[in-house]
Design goal:
With 127 residues, the protein is of the alpha+beta class. The chain has helices at residues 3-9, 16-29, 110-125; strands at residues 34-37, 41-45, 49-54, 70-76, 87-92, 95-102. β5 and β6 form a beta hairpin. It has one domain (3-125). It has a 6-stranded antiparallel beta sheet with strand order 1-2-3-4-6-5.
Length: 127
């Protein structure tokens, strides 16, 4: 495991299995993906950033697990209304940013893979 990744998770090591499941999915489904670790997030890129994970609390505290969660953020050209989406915003016309709280490796499933493929394709279309 990369030292930068371990440092990022620091006090949140209980969320590391969720991240590992997500990274495995990205390696399988979008093998061209690169990652950039910063103090507040791990960003996923092809040519441009299309998704990231952070500890942004996108869900009210009363509805979040106490430990073991992280927030996946991705951009689409439309608003997704799936119940798994904790928050969505349109920072500028035609770009919707979505936040999904993930609290177990099992939640990194086919739906997450589909959204990430769509987000990567959407990001690749930009000039």
């Amino acid at each position: 495991m990369d030292e930068e990744i371990l440092f990022f998770f620091g006090a949140h090591m209980d969320a590391l299995p969720v991240y590992q499941a997500l990274w495995q999915l990205l390696e399988e489904q979008l093998p061209q993906t690169r990652r950039k670790v910063s103090k507040t997030q791990i960003s996923f890129y092809d040519r441009r950033m299309y998704a990231c994970v952070s500890f942004l609390p996108a869900r009210p505290a009363a509805l979040r697990p106490k430990t073991g969660w992280l927030t996946l953020t991705f951009g689409l050209n439309r608003r997704e209304t799936d119940p798994r989406i904790d928050a969505a915003a349109e920072p500028y016309p035609g770009r919707w940013t979505h936040h999904v709280l993930l609290s177990s490796p099992e939640e990194v499933d086919g739906q997450i893979a589909a959204w990430l493929r769509e987000a990567a394709a959407f990001s690749a279309e930009k000039r």
